[in-house]
């Protein structure tokens, strides 16, 4: 017996499908097949679970918050082969783009028209004024020391 704080163990939900709408008519045509194969209830549960999870993932992606991967995991659990195919397709597209870049670069190298390398900014080189005075033979050491003093200024 249920109290007001407990929820029933099972609940039934009813909904309508319009045969005037092509997408709903197609779903309506599949229901007898699913019921005959005893997959109708699971299809409804999985479908609702998937729509709810992907809707929440989309909301989080748009808002830039949360971890949408958690909700996308439902898709991976229900349809692992589809997810694998999508991932392979995305990886293949990235590889094809990289291959096209390499082919362009190879053609440029072969034709000798490679792009100019980017020049690095050079650091400022200090200028030094060096004054050289001719000194006698005995004043060479003094002249060297005076030159060093001039550099230190």
Topology of helices and strands:
Layout lengths: L21 H15 L3 H24 L4 H11 L1 H32 L28 H13 L1
Helix pairs in contact: 2-3, 3-4
Q: Name the poorly predicted regions.
A: none
Our measurement of the CA-to-CA distance between the termini, rounded to an integer number of angstroms, reads 99 Å
Q: Which bin fits the share of residues in helices?
A: 55-70%
| Distinct helical segment count | 5
Strand content: under 5%
**SS-derived structural category:** mainly alpha
Radius of gyration: 38 Å
Tell me the overall shape: elongated
**Main beta sheet: strand number and arrangement?**
none
Element-by-element helix/strand order: HHHHH
In round numbers, the mean pLDDT is 83
Number of strands: 0
In short:
It is elongated and about 115 Å long. The protein has 153 residues and is mainly α.
Structure report:
The chain is an all-alpha fold and 153 residues long. It has 5 helices and no strands. The model has no long low-confidence stretch (mean pLDDT 83).
Keywords for this entry:
0% strand, 62% helix, elongated, mainly alpha, 153 residues, 5 helices, single chain
